[in-house]
Design goal:
This protein has 231 residues and is an alpha+beta fold. The chain has six helices and 18 strands. It starts with 11 loop residues before the first strand and ends with a strand. The structure holds manganese (II) ion (MN). The site of manganese (II) ion (MN) has 7 residues, from loops.
């Protein structure tokens, strides 16, 4: 087949301890999935159904090794959000909660980096969040750990430090909507496909980083990521 322009590169994630990569199809993100973060964003953490937004595939950065990302354009408030990332290996639609974890390939530590000023301006004007959330290299993600090796973490410390100072510290047991519930809910709106990622939301403590800052995120059992902001 002759292509009119160069095809986009495949985005992949490292798989811990395996000589294979995980090809990324789409990136879904859950909004406000920890009560304390919903409150810090000025919202009521009632258990409303989860809501989702997306990042483009070129948001994904393989952060299995220490890496760096550019400070993005058109913002003065570039935030870190440390998150548990779920990788889907078996597609499906209308997946019941009881079967949802059977569709999960593995888990990783990831950052949903955010142009907070653009996000909040869009939110307050009733516009889409896209420019706040969906931009190149806005999702550095560490090595995937396969569920068949580590199981499905329901309780694990999740932390983020900037330049060695604690910024975010919580536990994935505080997710308002569990991984299984997120998979089930999302699959009612959109048929899940192998290669899809779900970023499950961030705990409280989100804040700005500037050029030169070093973000170090970790989830117990999933290792850590080290991402420097270029500048
Ligand atoms: Mn997020």
């Amino acid at each position: 087949m002759k292509l009119a322009v160069e095809a986009p590169p495949l985005r992949t994630l490292t798989v811990a301890g395996r000589d294979e990569k995980f090809p990324v199809r789409r990136v879904f993100c859950v909004g406000r999935n920890y009560a304390a973060h919903a409150r810090e964003m000025g919202k009521d953490p009632d258990r409303e159904p989860p809501f989702f937004f997306m990042k483009p595939t070129n948001a994904v950065v393989d952060a299995a090794r220490p890496t760096s990302v550019p400070y993005p354009p058109k913002t003065k408030d570039y935030h870190h959000e440390i998150e548990l990332v779920v990788a889907i290996d078996k597609g499906g639609r209308d997946i019941p909660v009881s079967e949802a974890l059977g569709h999960v390939y593995g888990y990783a530590v990831g950052l949903d980096t955010t142009r907070r000023d653009l996000q909040l301006e869009a939110r307050d004007k009733g516009r889409p969040w896209e420019f706040g959330k969906s931009f190149a290299q806005s999702a550095p993600i560490g090595a995937l750990h396969r569920a068949q090796e580590i199981g499905h973490p329901s309780s694990a410390a999740i932390t983020l430090q900037v330049n060695g100072q604690a910024r975010q510290s919580s536990d994935v047991d505080k997710l308002i909507w569990s991984v299984a519930e997120c998979v089930a809910c999302l699959s009612a709106y959109e048929t899940l496909e192998p290669g899809d990622l779900i970023m499950t939301g961030t705990p409280e403590g989100v804040n700005a980083v500037v050029a030169g800052d070093l973000m170090r995120g970790a989830i117990a059992g999933l290792g850590e990521i080290e991402v420097r902001v270029e500048g």
